[in-house]
Amino acid sequence: MPVPERLGSYLKRAEQALSAAKNAALRPMGLTVPQYAALLQLSENPGMSAAALARACAVTPPTMNTVLKNLQERGLIERSPHEWHRNILETRLTPEGEELLARADTGPVRIERGLAAEFTEQEHRTLVELLGRCIDYLDGARAEDAR
């Protein structure tokens, strides 16, 4: 099958274009997309572990450890041992992290809203459904290959 006809090429190009647009919007705040994603996840799920954050942000655990190290060095997050599982570190936003996220979030939100505005409500629902089916299939294919 010729490369231009491969669905994966379109999915990858769309993901790359979205990431590039978000990186450009976040650059003035001194954040990368993975750092922003971690801050956003932590704002909604305080106390997440690095492993849970890596899964939620779709990055590898080593990448998330680097992200968290950089965010901690900037004073945007704090990490402390879990109350019962001392070998698990809970991660929370600091007030500085909350403030930066509030400012930084305007760019990605603007991009997401602009992207959504390219579609009618029905097209948007259909796109979300179709992408969900892509994800389900690919997750299943990965699980099959792992066996």
UniProtKB/TrEMBL annotation:
<feature type="domain" description="HTH marR-type">
    <location>
        <begin position="4"/>
        <end position="136"/>
    </location>
</feature>
<dbReference type="InterPro" id="IPR036388">
    <property type="entry name" value="WH-like_DNA-bd_sf"/>
</dbReference>
<dbReference type="GO" id="GO:0003700">
    <property type="term" value="F:DNA-binding transcription factor activity"/>
</dbReference>
<dbReference type="InterPro" id="IPR000835">
    <property type="entry name" value="HTH_MarR-typ"/>
</dbReference>
<protein>
    <submittedName>
        <fullName>Putative HTH-type transcriptional regulator</fullName>
    </submittedName>
</protein>
<dbReference type="Pfam" id="PF12802">
    <property type="entry name" value="MarR_2"/>
</dbReference>
<dbReference type="InterPro" id="IPR036390">
    <property type="entry name" value="WH_DNA-bd_sf"/>
</dbReference>
<dbReference type="InterPro" id="IPR039422">
    <property type="entry name" value="MarR/SlyA-like"/>
</dbReference>
<dbReference type="GO" id="GO:0006950">
    <property type="term" value="P:response to stress"/>
</dbReference>
